[in-house]
């Protein structure tokens, strides 16, 4: 009995001794258990409260959450040096004060009658009929769930929020410094390229040049001469095309076309369209053919059916439609 009591006392004393890390082992075990329980509880509450996810569109990546019950945004802050791994910044919306403050209590944005002012970015955001302007310049569209800036969809909320809140999150916390200007520049350059391409297409669409129509086997099946006269494979004149868009046969007008690629029948009704990428469509918008850069003409499946040897490939396609067989 004495030995048993001595052993028990020794065991208790051992359990109460500090381990190599310092502190009582029993207390440490209990503390770890409480910490694990608290962590599980925190995760459960976070999962329950985070009813609205904030997702980046380009990579379909979760980048934040909106807690509507707490009027709070939790977002992973992005810096030029990269994301702060595992660190989250909270923003709270004070609707009674028309303000948005960070977790340090600093007001970073004010809600206004027509949008919001993002103070630390010196950015005035105006929202009208869904259109979004920054410092007076129209640049995008914002809804109660997503936002598009300079043609690029930044991301979306999985639930509905206010347009101002959606705009604040993506403009303030998602875009890296200088990225907005890069997007604007990229959009301007793209628009310039599109305008140049449209101008080139319009000029080429009305260009009448001499050339032969050949079959896929290389046989000549017709031609257009420098004056715009159209001939069949026997050399007989069967029509005429002019640079003002008129197409006629020996019996009169058979159709017309314009610089936008629209093609009309003799009554003036639209029967098709040629796109800048060479796609040939019928009046309903269905693809019926293709014009290739090398002068080949294709059917709806893309298979080559003929080729024009001149540079006026768009006019040649119109003539092929009216006088031969597309």
Structural class, from secondary structure content? alpha+beta
Estimated radius of gyration: 35 Å
Please give the alpha-carbon distance between the first and last residues: 110 Å
Beta-strand content estimate: 35-45%
Pick out the low-confidence regions.
1-22, 78-84
Query: What is the approximate shape?
Result: elongated
Strand order, sheet with most strands? 1-2-3-6-7-8-9-10-11-12-13-14
What is the typical, i.e. mean, pLDDT? 84
Largest sheet descriptor:
12 strands, antiparallel, barrel
Number of strands: 26
Compact description:
The protein has helices at 2-16, 25-49, 163-174, 179-205, 313-323; strands at 52-56, 61-67, 72-75, 78-79, 82-83, 89-94, 99-102, 107-112, 115-118, 123-128, 131-134, 137-142, 146-149, 152-157, 211-214, 220-224, 229-232, 237-241, 246-249, 252-257, 262-265, 270-274, 279-282, 287-291, 296-299, 304-308. By secondary structure, the chain is of the alpha+beta class. The strands form three sheets. Strands 1-2-3-6-7-8-9-10-11-12-13-14 form a twelve-stranded antiparallel β-barrel. Strands 15-16-17-18-19-20-21-22-23-24-25-26 form a twelve-stranded antiparallel beta barrel. Strands 4-5 form a two-stranded antiparallel sheet.
